[in-house]
Amino acid sequence: DYASSRLLRLGLPHNKLGRHAWDSFAKILQSPRCPLILDLSFNPLGSHSLSPSAIEALKSPSRCEMLCLRQCHLNVESITAIVAALESEGSRLQQVDLGGNGDDEKSEMDFLFNRARLATLKNTERAFEGIQQ
After folding, report:
1. Please, is 104 exposed, middle or buried when counting C-beta atoms within 10 Å of its C-beta (0-12, 13-18, 19+)?
2. Is residue 41 pLDDT above 90, yes or no?
3. Where are any strands of DSSP class E within the chain?
4. Across the chain, what does the average pLDDT equal?
5. Does the pTM exceed 0.70?
6. Which of 59, 94, 54 is nearest to 74 (CA)?
7. CA distance 30 to 47
8. Among 43, 46, 103, residue whose Cα is nearest residue 68
């Protein structure tokens, strides 16, 4: 039965998903049946800005713990929005793979990747504290 399904991993790498996939991505994250791992790697999600619904979905509590966006042609603006969403109190993402994006702005991307690592570590600590209580 679809309503009670518990999909653990949804892998959609190399599917030529374009920048218009962000709204669908947001709906997946906001679904109570969201997979624990969502892999959108190697899709040309583009250098366009993230949709507002995708940013809100990243900020809100979700069942998703790992998001893979490796080599999705994301620019600094998009990565900055993702990292800011990770740093919000609502995010539960514990792992985010942003590798292979924004190669033209390497120093700024390194800074953003470090912020993402810190944010996901904080989210992992919050999740662990919730389990202990």
Report:
1. exposed
2. yes
3. 9-11, 37-39, 66-68, 95-97
4. 84
5. yes
6. 54
7. 23
8. 43
Give me the mean pLDDT over the 30-56 stretch: 85
Give tens-digit pLDDT for 60-83.
888 888 999 999 988 888 888 889
What is the rounded distance in angstroms from the CA atom of residue 105 to the CA atom of residue 92? 28
CA 95, CA 9: separation in Å to the nearest integer? 14
Q: Letter for the amino acid at 89? A: E
The amino acid at residue 71 is: Q
CA–CA separation, 90 and 46 (whole Å): 26
Smallest Cα–Cα separation from 112: which of 91, 71, 133, 84?
84
Q: Which residue has the tokens 């740093």?
A: 87
Closest CA to 48 of 81, 15, 26, 24: 81
CA atoms of 14 and 48, how far apart (whole Å): 19
